[in-house]
Design a protein that fits this description.
The chain is α+β, with helices and mostly antiparallel strands. Helices cover about 40% and strands about 20% of the residues. The chain has helices at about 5-20, 25-35, 40-45, 55-85, 90-95, 110-125, 140, 175-180, 225-240, 290-295, 315-320, 335, and strands at about 130, 135, 165-170, 185-195, 210-220, 245-250, 255-265, 280-290, 305-310. Strands 1-4-5-9-8-7-6 form a 7-stranded mixed beta sheet, sandwiched between helices. Strands 2-3 form a two-stranded antiparallel sheet. A hairpin with a 2-residue loop joins β6 and β7 (about 255-265). Bound molecules: phenylalanine (PHE). Phenylalanine binds near residues 251, 254 and 310.
Length: about 350
């Protein structure tokens, strides 16, 4: 091996060692080893006088280059070591006492959590969990539910229509008919799912949201059963001291119908900003299944009666956690979602 070749090898070796140096002390030790008065470079340069004249120019150039390159490599490494607080690289990795990097653990979306919690409560009250398609026909979304042809909810400003005569369901009440066509009473089901409405998006509206439909049909089911079931639910979900009230309302598929409010959890009914000074918060629509709906499913209204109710899941999630903008649920912003991971 010529002296020039030895010098080139020295450069490569020194660069490799410099890149591995984990502390300023290591860098200094390498400087002494390679560039010191008795170091490896000095040793090789000392041989310059002994080689053939023809080899000297190249070896001389490599000796200069070795000094510059090794100096630069050590300099760069000491800058990196200082920037990282004194130690980097392999020595730092070997500190087994440092805690590991925790992997990101996923969690259930807050809307899924609320659906699960509500389903759990009704499951314990004897309800089975069901589901239905999001793409529906006019029949299940309107006709079977006793909604007249000229009802405003059939307007294409209120429902998303798809080309083939189908539509995106605007309510989970569609499941009522689908269940009763398949299962004879007694029927007790809860059906969570997505619904779609062409509403302009704002803090309380979204073109897609979630509802949970409840349906109970049997002999001698009364409005008192509806009240009992909903109150049992509300006490478990919102707390034992919650109060509930039924306001008369109209739905084509229930008669009589009601909108149901719970007492505001923040002010306990005395009125505050969160309940618009009313003391009450609306959480669902409900009523006794209309005889026409039973008839459409070939269930005799003379023999059977039933109740149905429908929640908006986002609304309940917003009440539960004090979330003031529905859009937060859909933005997939981890800073928001992580607050709900159990
Ligand atoms: N489907 C109704 C709505 O979307 C809610 C409801 C369900 C009302 C069942 C009565 C019975 O507003």
């Amino acid at each position: 091996m010529t002296l020039a070749e030895k010098l080139r090898q020295l450069i490569i070796e020194a660069q490799g060692r410099a890149a591995d140096a984990a502390s300023l002390e290591d860098v200094e030790a390498l400087r002494v080893k390679y560039l010191g008065r008795k170091g490896a470079l000095a040793e090789l340069t000392g041989l310059l006088g002994q080689i053939d004249a023809a080899e000297k120019p190249e070896a001389g150039r490599e000796a200069n280059r070795a000094k510059n390159e090794i100096t630069a490599a050590l300099e760069a490494r000491s800058v990196a070591v200082k920037a990282s607080g004194g130690t980097v690289g392999s020595a730092a990795k070997e500190d087994l006492s440092l805690p590991g990097t925790a992997p990101l653990v996923g969690g259930l979306h807050p809307i899924t959590q609320v659906i699960d919690e509500i389903c759990d409560i009704f499951y314990r009250l004897g309800f089975q969990i069901a589901s239905g398609p999001e793409m529906e026909t006019d029949y299940y979304n309107f006709e079977a539910l006793n909604i007249p042809a000229d009802h405003s909810s059939r307007d294409d400003l209120a429902t998303f229509y798809i080309e083939n005569g189908k539509l995106l369901r605007s309510q989970t009440s569609t499941v009522q008919t689908r269940i009763m066509e398949k299962e004879r009473p007694p029927v007790k089901v809860l059906a969570p799912g997505r619904v779609y409405r062409p509403d302009a998006t704002d803090a309380t509206h979204s073109f897609m949201f979630h509802q949970i439909e409840g349906l109970c049909v049997d002999e001698r089911v009364t409005f008192a059963d509806l009240k009992g079931v909903l109150l049992a639910f509300a006490k478990q979900f919102f707390g034992a001291d919650v109060k509930m009230r039924f306001r008369p309302h109209f739905f084509p598929f229930t008669e009589p119908s009601a909108e149901v409010d719970i007492s505001c959890g923040l002010c306990k009914g005395s009125g505050c900003r969160s309940c618009a000074q009313k003391g009450w918060l609306e959480i669902l629509g409900a009523g006794m299944v209309h005889p026409n709906v039973l008839r459409a499913c070939k269930v005799s209204p003379e023999k059977y009666s039933g109740f149905a109710f429908g929640f908006g899941v986002e609304r309940i999630a917003m009440l539960k956690w004090g979330v003031n903008d529905i859009r937060l649920f859909y933005e997939n912003d981890m800073r928001f979602l992580r607050q709900f991971s159990a």
